[in-house]
Write a structure and sequence with these properties.
heterodimer, A: 226 residues, alpha/beta, Rossmann fold, 33% helix, 29% strand, B: 404 residues, 2 domains, 19% strand
């Protein structure tokens, strides 16, 4: 489903080159729950940004569903992110002026789905993740865990091909982290949702099917879990 | 097309929510600033328009009527006056013609001497053509057949204390006083002041009037001449058309509309006012553009990370840009509406308490055309000013924007 070949990313601090990824090659299969792990600065977030089409590699290729992502222009990438991808950020990243249901319905509305249909789909997802009582609350009125669950609902409302999650539990306590990871597990198991998630917590490993360990911008090793 | 509608709908949705649930203080401040700019754009031109209208109105009402007939070129008088008046009064659209006959003279009162023109009128005709009779501040206007009396302008009457006078005067004449007039033909008469008028026009208040009968007595016989014939047209008649009808009647004298009379010099004055108006409008627009640019710039910079996130989840940059444009358009509309309310209140106030100028009481004139033109200008300027910073931030790459 996702095929990455010799992916490199170099940042420039003035004239100093800082290689973040030094040639990554790997694949993600449909229905995978893949964990990207490694120490700080190993390049896992950079890799997720490149896979999620929110940053450009210095060189290499990314094919998703057979389409060369780097040949797409800015608008086509935006469309691809909207229609085929879901993205969950560390800091929830909800729109503060929108209510819970509006935040979730936003990307559905952006696809041209009617307001009523978008709200219905959003309500379905929000009730699945136990937030049906919070539909009309603003993000600031929710706990961190609730906000992250809203972000998950938002990323899921368009039934994406792939779900990217960038350390979604980084700001959550263990209980809330478990709730979030259980949600991922459920949607992966029940809906066959492909998920690529960055984490540095050892105990998250038990949720992943496969783990790619990064170190100094390279793949250090891979682990397969059943 | 459908795609664009979806984008517009979402832009409006995001823009509206941002205004509804964003910072109320910032919203109110922006609306008030736009309202003040709009008021400023309208107010100065409205006062200038009011001043121009006042001058035009004073010219028609007190000086020339709608049309004035003057002697032929190189002639001192209009001859065969009665025949001319008969023809003039038959022209469709003419309410009445009123003759004026100017005689030079020197007025004397308590040792003060004031040279000037004494104008003979026919009071019955005059009251149908000019409105001076409505502007008596003391005594009464002339009556048909009055002799031995004179009506004088406020500036001629003057004050006992010269320093209060704007121009040479008789030094404090009041109704009932006697004025001696020494005419240029050598005749000297003493008149009782029957009334004093004040129109607040510098062109009219230095005038003095006697009746036609009095003038004939000074001249020593019937006078079938005039120095001017003032014509009042029927309300709603096109003055130019009436002028052409008069020319069509074979009148050989100079026929001028009040507009012709004001002439090129007045047109230049109006043009100069238009330049002042344009400069004022331009400055107001620049202020509006700068304020809105700064407001939206600050807003987009504060929301930079959020803009990055919206792009990351697949919201097109055009939707993001136009969400800010919609905010600005809503803010401008609110500002313009608030500005209209302020102007409406000002209009009410100034209709009761006009701005007092030495040459008249000026009421600002708010025309629908001016209001609409300035509203559209401000709306367009605001929209552009809001678009630019939003467009700039929305074009940033996602990672840069997300760093905030």
């Amino acid at each position: 489903m996702i095929r990455v070949e010799n992916l490199k990313k170099t940042y420039y601090l003035g004239v100093v080159e800082v290689p973040a990824l030094r040639g990554i090659t790997f694949e993600v299969k449909r229905g995978d729950f893949l964990g990207l792990m490694g120490p700080s600065g190993s390049g896992k977030s950079t890799l997720l940004h490149l896979l999620g089409l929110i940053d450009d590699p210095t060189s290499g290729t990314i094919h998703i569903g057979g389409v060369d992502m780097l040949n797409l222009d800015d608008d086509e990438r935006t469309d691809y992110r909207l229609n085929k991808m879901g993205y969950i950020f560390q800091e929830y990243a909800l729109v503060p002026e929108l209510t819970v249901i509006e935040n979730v319905a936003l990307t559905a509305m952006a696809r041209g789905i009617s307001d009523a249909e978008s709200r219905r789909a959003s309500m379905d997802i929000l009730s699945t993740i136990g937030l049906s009582a919070r539909l009309n609350h603003l993000p600031r009125e929710l706990s961190g865990g609730e906000q992250q669950r809203v972000a998950i609902a938002r990323s899921m409302v368009n039934r994406p091909l792939i779900l990217f999650a960038d350390e979604p539990c980084a700001n959550l306590d263990t209980d809330n982290s478990k709730i979030v990871l259980d949600q991922f597990h459920t949607i992966n198991e029940e809906l066959g949702q492909t998920i690529v998630m960055v984490s540095h917590e050892e105990w998250h490993k038990e949720y992943f099917h496969r783990i790619v360990y990064l170190k100094d911008g390279r793949i250090d090793r891979e682990e397969q879990h059943s | 097309m459908a795609d664009n509608l979806v984008k517009l709908h979402l832009s409006f949705f995001l823009g509206l929510r941002s205004l509804q649930r964003g910072n109320i203080g910032s919203l109110v401040m922006t609306v008030v600033i736009i309202a003040m700019v709009f008021t400023n754009m309208i107010f100065l031109p409205s006062v200038i328009t009011g001043a121009i209208k006042l001058f035009e109105q004073q010219t028609i009402e007190y000086q020339s009527g709608n049309i004035i007939i003057e002697p032929k070129k190189d002639a001192e008088y209009i001859d065969d006056l009665e025949n001319l008046l008969a023809r003039v009064n038959r022209v469709p659209g003419v309410l009445r013609g009123a003759p004026h006959y100017d005689i030079g003279g020197v007025m004397k009162f308590k040792g003060n001497r004031l040279p000037g023109s004494i104008i003979a009128i026919r009071p019955r005709d005059e009251t149908m053509v000019t409105g001076i009779f409505k502007k008596m501040v003391e005594g009464q206007y002339l009556g048909e057949g009055d002799t031995g009396v004179i009506v004088i302008g406020k500036l001629v009457a003057g004050h006992e204390d010269e320093s209060e006078d704007l121009m040479p005067s008789l030094g404090g004449v009041t109704t009932g006083d006697s004025i001696e007039v020494e005419y240029t033909n050598g005749v000297t008469r003493t008149y009782r002041v029957k009334g004093i008028f004040e129109t607040k026009s510098y062109m009219v208040d230095p005038l003095v009037f006697i009746t036609w009968d009095e003038m004939e007595s000074v001249r020593g016989g019937p006078v079938d001449q005039a120095t001017a014939v003032l014509i009042r047209t029927v309300q709603g008649e096109d003055v130019e058309e009436v002028k052409f009808s008069l020319i069509g009647m074979g009148i050989q004298e100079e026929i001028k509309t009040w507009h012709d009379l004001l002439g090129k010099a007045f047109a230049e004055v109006v043009q100069s006012y238009a330049i002042i108006n344009n400069i004022s409008t331009f400055v107001s627009l620049v202020i509006a553009i700068v304020v809105i640019f700064i407001v939206i710039m600050i807003k987009t910079i504060n929301n930079r990370r959020q803009i990055g996130i919206l792009k990351a989840i697949g919201i097109h940059r055009t939707i993001i840009t136009f969400s800010y444009v919609f905010q600005v358009t809503i803010l401008s509309l609110m500002g313009i509406l608030f500005g209209l309310l302020i102007l409406f209140a000002m209009n009410l106030y100034f209709s009761v308490y006009p701005i007092v100028f030495p040459d008249g009481d000026i009421r600002p004139v708010f025309t629908v055309a001016d209001l609409a033109a300035n509203a559209v200008l401000l709306f367009i300027a605001s929209t552009i000013a809001g678009f630019l910073p939003a467009w700039r931030i929305a074009r940033e790459d996602i990672m840069t924007a997300m760093k905030g």
